[in-house]
Amino acid sequence: MSSGLAELQRLEREHVMATYARQPVAFVRGEGCTLWDDEGRDYLDFLAGISVLNVGHSHPAVVEAVREQAGRLMHAGNLFYTEPGMRLAERLAERSLGGKVFFTNSGAEAVEAALKLARKHRPRGEIVVVHGAFHGRTYGALSATPQESKQAPFAPLVPGFVVVAPEAAAVRAAVSERTAAVLLEPVQGETGIHPLPIGVLQAAREACDSVGAALIFDEIQCGMGRTGTLWAYEQVGVVPDAMTLAKGLGGGLPIGALVTGRALAGVLEPGDHGSTFAGGPVACAAALAVLDVLDDPALLERVRELGERLAEGVRELPGVASVRGRGLMLAAELAEGGAPELVRRALVEERLVLNATGPTTVRFLPPLVVSEAEVDDALGRLRSAAGLSVAG
Ligand SMILES: *Cc1c(COP(=O)(O)O)cnc(C)c1O
Known catalytic residue: 272? Predict the structure, then answer.
């Protein structure tokens, strides 16, 4: 298979549902922070498949783990035991909340599992979410994603969601004896990288404790080392009762997980939930290899250092009003807008892969194995692209 971009665009036009706004580039290979297109041009990737390639493209240890497991056993199903899933559950639980794990194939499915767990924990209970949240596109996850444009065409949604401002007082006021769970992203991702104030997370923790509701963190984007600690919650000193993972967990393979603390570990019982592919040996072997790479204090410290270097450099670029985020999960707010155009120029003219989360916001999610030289290279390319934008 070696079809060029034009042919792929024709195939998409004729046969693929038009749900994505794709950039006009076809990638054929990746290594570390570099991608190559169908004409052999190299690109510097500062998006990492939206925080999926945290270990970089085709990390040798992940490739080897996948190759080895795929050659031995690709699937047996959850009616039987396979070792990678059991080992991965042990590793995730022991390295985080200490309870148990339910595996899924995606982020949205991990959120669905969390919602089912919350409702089983407190029957018919409400789920409290905040404005600016993104939890996925399936019905339950979409119902937890209070964005008019995403929800409106698909009404009616799942009932029982309460939406409040991401403020401590609002969260406190929304939580009552009827609340099953408060679901929060410690750093909101899809809506433009907004770290929730620690006071909001603390208020949610206290409110949940006072009524026996579950505090659930969605770490699908901000987990897996992205913010400079393996889990984002480690930096804010607020420990949730459960968290959802996906994106970076499989190093490029689809896998998600709901991880609980001890208190909620027994809520889901035989027959309550399931998934044919989830916890399969290949995806779990990949995730174990990913954790070997990312759960490394030296790498995580570098994420924090390089995050600061990138943030400082971006802050000095023409047209940038402010930079926010944690670790290598950053966004630049542009004074005059034009983020999609800047992203397009960076890609086409400078071969730098980025993403705009809105008209004024450029998102940076480089692989966590990025080097200082690559950070400086990206800043240089961005400076050129910004100059081009200014020059029109
Ligand atoms: C991407 C994302 C999801 C959805 O994950 P999918 O794998 O696309 O279903 C949910 N929550 C957060 C915070 C995300 O960033």
Answer: no
